[in-house]
Write a structure and sequence with these properties.
305 residues, five-stranded parallel beta sheet, globular
């Protein structure tokens, strides 16, 4: 019997990191070398993504101060994982074989890369065919969040990173070396972020990541309904939502820590109400699509427009 291969395709800032940490505690579940492999997006439309991150990691490794051994080990492990992912780019069968081998010791294997929400139907078809001919049964999970609020959270993350602060992930203090390196790594980047208001950010790929109708139409052209599961960020932190995801994957239901939040983006500066209104207007087709697809009552109850 084919092992299930979970492709969680987003959305970005939609709770995928929290969900990955929860699922990693399940018996029989295994992520790839890293939660976000970034193989498919690099393969199909972002050829420099992994190489760019590898350059940044190697630069960080070279700048680490003496005595930062734990951090050196962390960055070294990340470089090794990204080198593995880079080695899979260009060969979808190699990508499938990697997860097929991983599945020898698991019931469900997973790649949870939100950027995959930007794949086209043709790209999904090529991916599906490679996975299936290598003995895997793909399952698609798509988490959605209020489209404009998702955009806002992504923008705040960019602003946070430009200022050298970090996302709240745990009560552990952030090492001073990490903050100093973030600030030293690119004052130009911080200046660029400050010169791009919210409306400018809400364009191109950033806008596309909130166009859920495009993602849904693409995956539904390729995968049968029983192999796709939709959920909403606003309802994610509830036992019934988690139970449904576990059932979809064939995993045992377990308690979850609904009080934990991962990779949250704090408010660093207010958004101009006029800009917010214009972004919502750009996303009006998405709100209408989701109301028609999932029910007007459900969508209006969780996405306050």
């Amino acid at each position: 019997m084919k092992k299930k291969f979970l492709l969680c395709v987003g959305c970005q800032k939609g709770g995928t990191t929290w969900l990955a940490e929860y699922l990693e505690g399940a018996p029989g579940f295994r992520l790839g070398a890293q939660k976000e492999m970034h193989v498919l997006d690099t393969h199909f439309f972002a050829p420099d993504w992994l190489q760019g991150r590898l350059r940044s990691d190697r630069d960080l490794l070279a700048k680490l101060p003496a005595g930062a051994e734990a951090e050196r080990e962390e960055v070294t492990e990340r470089i090794a994982a990204r080198e593995l992912c880079q080695g899979l780019v260009g060969d979808l069968d190699a990508y499938a074989r990697y997860f097929r081998d991983l599945a020898k010791s698991a019931d469900v294997v997973a790649d949870m890369t939100p950027n995959y929400a930007l794949l086209t139907a043709a790209q999904w078809r090529s991916t599906r065919d490679a996975l299936e001919r290598n003995g895997l049964a793909p399952r698609i999970l798509f988490l959605m969040r209020d489209p404009e609020r998702r955009m806002e959270s992504a923008w705040r993350m960019r602003e946070r990173n430009a200022r050298g602060s970090v996302a709240p992930r745990s009560p552990r203090p952030v090492p001073r070396w990490r903050l100093l390196l973030r600030r030293a790594s690119g004052p130009a980047g911080a200046q660029a972020a400050s010169n791009h208001p919210y409306l400018a950010f809400a364009s191109n790929d950033n806008l596309a990541r909130s166009r859920y109708e495009t993602t849904i139409r693409a995956i539904e052209q390729v995968f049968p309904a029983e192999d796709i599961h939709y959920a909403f960020y606003e309802n994610l932190f509830r036992p019934d939502t988690i139970a449904a995801i576990n059932a979809f994957l064939g995993l045992p239901d377990r308690p979850a820590d609904f009080g934990a939040r991962v990779n949250a983006s704090p408010v660093v500066k207010p958004i101009d109400p006029a800009e917010r209104a214009r972004v919502r207007a750009l996303l009006e087709p998405t709100y209408r699509f989701c109301e028609e697809r999932f029910g007007e009552g459900q969508i209006r109850a969780i996405w306050k427009r």
